[in-house]
Task: inverse folding
């Protein structure tokens, strides 16, 4: 099983692929797709930031 960092990278890559598929199905009459895409891409960006975090750091009390 991959470590946490690798699992998060894999999840972000899979989500990025799904976002591209959703963009392909976007029609001019789809008013909610642009907002949903922004939120999905923001979530992917957050996952990318987490993968750069140091998992070994203990939270402060």
Result:
């Amino acid at each position: 099983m991959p470590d946490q960092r690798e699992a998060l990278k894999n999840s972000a890559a899979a989500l990025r692929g799904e976002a591209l598929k959703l963009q392909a199905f976007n029609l001019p009459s789809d008013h909610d797709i642009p907002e949903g895409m922004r939120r999905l891409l923001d979530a992917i960006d957050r996952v990318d930031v987490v993968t750069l975090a140091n998992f070994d750091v203990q939270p402060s009390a």
Q: What stands out?
A: Residues 7 and 54 are 15 Å apart (CA to CA). The first helix runs from residue 4 to 24.
